[in-house]
Amino acid sequence: MTRGKRIAYLLGLGALLVTANAAAAENSADWSAYLGGTDSGQYSSLDQINVDNVTQLEVAWTYASEGGNEKRSGQIQCNPLVIDGVLYGVSPWMKVFALDAATGVERWTFTPEKPKKSVCRGFVWWTDGTQRLLLYGGGPYLYALDPATGQPVPGFGDKGRVRLSEGLGRDPDKIYAEASSPGVVYRDLYIIGIRTMETHPAAPGHIRAYNVHTGAIEWTFHTIPQPGEFGHDTWPKEAYKFAGGANSWAGMSLDAERGIVYVPTGAAVFDFYGGDRHGDNLFANTLLALDAATGERKWHFQTVHHDMWDRDLPAPPNLLTVEHDGQRIDAVAQITKSAFVFLFDRETGEPLFPIEEVPVPASTLEGELVSKTQPVPTLPKPFSRHRFGYDGITVLSPAARDYAENRWATIRKGNVFMPPSREGTLVFPGFDGGGEWGGAAVDPEDGVLYINASEMPWILQMVDINELGSDPALRTGAMIYAKQCLFCHGVEREGNPFNMYPSLQGIGERVKREDAQALLLAGRGFMPSFTNLGEAGVKNVLDFIYAADESGTAKKKTLDQSGEKATPIFRHTGWNRFVDQEGYPAIKPPWGTLNAIDMNTGEILWKSVLGDTPALRKKGLS
After folding, report:
1. Taking the CA of residue 175 as centre, how many other CA atoms within 13 Å lie in the half-sphere pointing to its CB?
2. Mind listing the pLDDT tens digit for each residue in 214-265?
3. Does domain 462-572 sit in CATH 1.10.760.10?
4. Alpha-carbon gap, residue 519 to 539, rounded angstroms
């Protein structure tokens, strides 16, 4: 079979499955950029696989990226490249593989030094017609590989790699920086953002352009502005020295003809409490249009002021052309976790549909100052529900209804921008969208945008970590746990099975202390390395976690050493989906939809239920 007869799918256990349509005609086309091109359109004109023959697809070949080793299973989130008949992908353990796209036969692999499970969503391909490079983020490093052999290119950085934590104005040994999504190449510059920690201390999410030949940083855009820079007055004066985040982890898009790179950024650290970062916090939660050659800001739009809901811009914006007021306009569309789509003139940043600043509720948390308004586009209308009223509570069963109704009655709700609270705030759409990192697709012929949307409610509950308390001897470890670990593993170390965060209760019976220490230092999956805690910090937090098994929850202590009530330091109690007692969403379906939006008019053309729950279907409930 020829490579023109194949379509690739990625499986969660680290395997690559290719299926074939035996009736397809001979054809060939490269997929040479992340999401199909620097416009992030996820569009192909190939028509061999269509609604009439998709049911005829059969397995052609399968590739196990980690050799079928179940201990090295994990998610493949990579959008592979296919160039000149070679498929390039990344395993869950950051191993790069090159395969013959027609047969699945392995040509070469590259494994980074001290590999660990992490996230790499794709590559950047660069060529000047003679030399070729494959650039990818493998954990804490950016690598330049020779696509013919998989070997690091010696002249790039230090033996083919550069350390992403360097060049950010902080001690590189004390901050976490990885590149989960690829950037873009403009001429001889590789422009890329980073993934940072979501708690202090976190790296600033500055955007950088690396020379593809040497690995040297050619320009940096400060997403947390420094003195004298535009936006510095939207932060506390000294924030640039300690604030983190405002990073672009989702990737970016490029208009090469205009020389403009479009960069979506995420929230500032800490995600859910901004008592130490009063102000709107430019350039967090912002679509940035930068001069690709120099990094100079051309225009920007902030989609959330002073974010407290983890409303990162989750995907690269889509570059498209629309008809507006009788004119053809090159535009850029940015989807959001809030299920909004913002549409701008690509060159000027002028909104093509009006955007209103709407009032939002005040915070009930001490020290928090909420922005009085938030931007809301008038068109298109949200592509996911914003309201979760009493009439929307699940009816899967009487028990599910009662369970969900009791919790629903206790939480703050009623506004998509309801601030975090002690009692719990409904976040809907949830932390996973609305829109998420998979992004939207655009048909360039008619300007219709297609977006997969999630409709899962979450509950955001805050706690003052001073009120968690601990034995005085374990106080330091308890504070570290509360700041770094609590939001995944819970107040009582109970974990969250629905979100795959393991319980730490009884850890002493399951995990040797030295193994836990090694894990903290190395990181795994979405858990970063905590080398920034230092040897003493790691010891303190392990003392607390292991001692809690012996003594149970320590006695609460709300006073500091002087006997005065401690200054509130808020953290959230975990990534908690709002589910019933069986783990199903507490809201009536649909829980996922596919949406088609005409970006010429802002009209939602159609909405289709996306996904299925086999267990519920068997019961006649799905």
Report:
1. 26
2. 999 999 999 999 999 999 999 999 999 999 999 999 999 999 999 999 999 9
3. yes
4. 13
